Amino acid sequence: MLKKRFFMMLSMCVVFIMFAATFAGANPSDWPKKVRIGLIPTEGGADIIARFKPLINHLESVLGIEVEGKSASDYAGIITAMTHKHIEFAYFGPKSYTDAANKANAQAVALEMGESGQKGYYGVIISKKGSGIKTLEQAKGHVFAFNDPNSTSGYLVPMVLFKRDLKVEPKQYFSHVKWSGSHGASILGVKHGTIEVASTNDIDLRRMSEKGQVSMDDFNILWTSDLIPGSPMCVRGDMPESLKAAFCGALMMFNSDKMGLQKLQIGGYVHCDDSTYDPIRYLKKLKAELKGKK
Q1: Which of 119, 120, 125, 79 is nearest to 103 (CA)?
Q2: Helix, strand, coil percentages, rounded to 5, for the chain
Q3: Do the beta carbons of residue 68 and residue 102 sit within 8 Å?
Q4: Fold entry, domain 2-118+230-283
Q5: Is the dihedral of CA 112, 116, 121, 125 positive or negative?
């Protein structure tokens, strides 16, 4: 299975690089001299730029142009940046991508895989071990945190759980509902007791554990979602087709950089397109319909 996956990625990489080289050689003047890549602040702006530094350096080397990493105080800031053409590339979450596709002409070209090679991740709801909160029923009446209104696992997916499956209104079910600002803040909040229950995901939980900021033994997992499509790497739609192809090809080439993947804490990149995120659009539509039934 691993050998098959390797050769599939290798052949995909060759196709994209050949395609990119064909166009780039013909119209290099179409490319900007510098591109900016926006990164949603899953664990805080400065932290995510540091985590993406090896990939940013790799993109500069392969594309032959300057690449600058940029983040923001929230997910909406990255969507707005692409809307106003302040960034050319972006790393979004699944929900924020679907919003950016509508508002900012974002186009998904690749998604990040988990460290075991899965093409997605799982939303989780957590509490602090030893808190006595081991189930969603026991979470009732406690302080709960979403992380960001544009987050998939931090807001959209758990909201569908509450509205459709549990048939509860979070503001009535919990004693207080707050916004933490990032997955990292939610996870640390639960660890330190400033938040009693929070929605996040298995990838960010593991990343923070691997960095030594938390231990997996610090938490109870109260609920786990179905598989969510992996977070996409995107280009702005008005960029030259040759640059889009070269960007995607460069991401596939990065799959051979084991140290870089380890820094990113992912298993690599695989090709995707806009339709990959249709299940997220379905959840957004369902959430809107459930809200209308109040």
Answers
A1: 79
A2: 50, 20, 25
A3: no
A4: D-Maltodextrin-Binding Protein; domain 2 (3.40.190)
A5: negative
**Residue 10: partners with Cβ closer than 8 Å, 6 or more residues away:** none
- Alpha carbon distance 70, 78 (integer Å): 8
The pTM for the full model equals 0.86
The per-residue pLDDT string of the chain (294 residues; one tens digit each, 9 = 90 and over) reads 444 444 444 445 444 444 444 444 434 688 999 999 999 998 766 789 999 999 999 999 999 999 999 999 999 999 999 999 999 999 999 999 999 999 999 999 999 999 889 999 999 999 999 999 999 999 999 999 999 999 999 999 999 999 999 999 999 999 999 999 999 999 999 999 999 999 999 999 999 999 899 999 999 999 999 999 999 999 999 999 999 999 999 999 999 999 999 999 999 999 999 999 999 999 999 999 988 765
Helices (H), the chain: 2-26, 45-63, 75-83, 94-104, 136-139, 157-160, 170-173, 183-192, 202-210, 241-253, 258-264, 278-292
CATH 3.40.30.10, applies to 121-228: no
Token match 């790393």: residue?
91
Map out the domains of the chain as residue ranges: 2-118+230-283, 121-228
Instruction: Count Cβ atoms within 10 A of the Cβ of residue 1 and give its class: 0-12 exposed, 13-18 middle, 19 or more buried.
Output: exposed
How many C-beta atoms surround the C-beta of residue 49 within 10 A?
17
d(CA 246, CA 240): 10
- Read off the amino acid at residue 109: V
**Cβ contact 149:179 at 8 Å:** yes
Tokens standing for residue 260: 């870089």
